[in-house]
Amino acid sequence: MSGNHNDNGKLSWSQDVQQGIRTARDLPRLVGNPQAGADSKKLTKIFKVRAPKSYIDLVNPSDPHDPIAAQFFPDERELRFLSGELPDPIGDKRWEKAPRLVHRYPDRVLLFPTFQCAVYCRYCFRKERINDEGEGFSKAAIASALSYIASQPELREVILSGGDPWTLSDRQLKQLRIELEKISHLRLLRVHTRVPVVLPRRVTSDLVDALRGRLMVCVVMHFNHPREITNDAIVACQRLREGGFMLLNQTVLLRGVNDDETTLKTLMQELVYSLGAKPYYLHHCDKTRGIGHFRTTIEHGTTLMRSLRGHISGVCVPNYMLDLPGGDGKVPLGPSYVERHSGQEWGFRTYDGKTHTYVEEPT
Ligand code: SF4
């Protein structure tokens, strides 16, 4: 990665990285708690720690349950593994067709250009792989993945994931985009990234230019809390939209972070109103090892979804999804508004709790 110059006295994005948390040793200095480093040493063996300075600055230090800190600050509860939790909760390995490539669905593949991130989210579903295989980008590492993509004519979409693809340099991203553009059956380049959330000044016009080309570009961001929607994030998203990129967002439903009606509603509305990003998925927390303290029940998730649908614009309502353990793919969790069905008669409950009978006309 290479940095920009200072902008209006703010840290450049590379300074933001340098002055943030990069190892457990940085924790006491940045969170003002001398015990933090010692406590976190064993935890960061399980999953490393990283966060840019401007993201850390969003933390309210007087709140012991701060929803921003909870997402990047190591927690003793990460040492507690539940019996049903898994090292590879969504079965990436089952569908791995080449190093750094997962082909689970018919017309799209996941490509991992890097296993490094701008922040290490404590709840990450891929955290064990990211911890074990923490290498960054190299052309050699993805060479056979590119050959595989070229050999599968049914593919239309490549999803750059990881790791965070926007930890690559502009030059590396441009090279990768050009390599993918050479594969004539591809139509869509999707990027899964948390950079617009935690390091929004990294979203420069050079980064946008690096990705613009023949392929339609869809950027799926990862905002989890309304306080993450900062002025810098708004500028970053405006730049992405002006670049012609489609903007979506996926949120993980996290206990103590966003699992209440007001937080979730505000987040979904501000994603649209402030960032111009369509809320795409609300993920039920995966069965990743050591993240039980973040997981809600599905019943609580569907209750929260009921508080959204109909009450706020449909543009602002995501789909609530469960990624089935073992790699069987995603299923929508509802809630269902069908109460009964017999022959041509259907009974529905509306968003505001009324019942409605619908009779289908003969076809
Ligand atoms: S940025 Fe994404 S891949 Fe990286 S730790 Fe966070 S959730 Fe996991």
Strand order of the largest sheet: 1-2-3-4-5-6-7-8-9-10
> pLDDT average, as an integer?
94
Name the beta content range: 15-25%
User: Which class do the helix and strand fractions yield?
Assistant: alpha/beta
* Terminal Cα span: 60 Å
Find the CATH topology of the largest domain: TIM Barrel
Can you tell me the CATH class of the largest domain?
Answer: Alpha Beta
The helix/strand series, from N terminus to C terminus, equals HHHHHEEEHHEHEHHEHEHEHEEEEE
Overall tally of structural domains: 2
Architecture blueprint of SSEs:
Elements: H1 13-18, H2 27-31, H3 35-46, H4 53-56, H5 69-72, E1 96-98, E2 101-105, E3 108-111, H6 127-132, H7 139-150, E4 157-160, H8 170-181, E5 188-192, H9 195-198, H10 205-211, E6 216-221, H11 231-242, E7 246-252, H12 261-273, E8 278-283, H13 298-308, E9 319-324, E10 329-332, E11 338-342, E12 345-349, E13 355-359
Parallel strand pairs: 3-4, 4-5, 5-6, 6-7, 7-8, 8-9
Antiparallel strand pairs: 1-2, 2-3, 9-10, 11-12, 12-13
Helix pairs in contact: 8-10
Bound molecules: iron/sulfur cluster.
Iron/sulfur cluster binds at residues 117, 119-121, 124, 126, 130, 162-164, 194.
Description of the molecule:
This protein is an alpha/beta fold and 363 residues long. The protein has two domains: 320 residues, Aldolase class I (TIM Barrel, Alpha-Beta Barrel), CATH 3.20.20; 26 residues, no CATH class. It is built from 13 helices and 13 strands. The strands form two sheets. Strands 1-2-3-4-5-6-7-8-9-10 form a ten-stranded mixed beta sheet. It has a three-stranded antiparallel beta sheet with strand order 11-12-13, with no helix packed on it. Helix 8 runs parallel beside helix 10. The longest helix is centred in the last third of the chain and has 13 residues. The protein binds iron/sulfur cluster (SF4). Iron/sulfur cluster (SF4) binds next to loops.
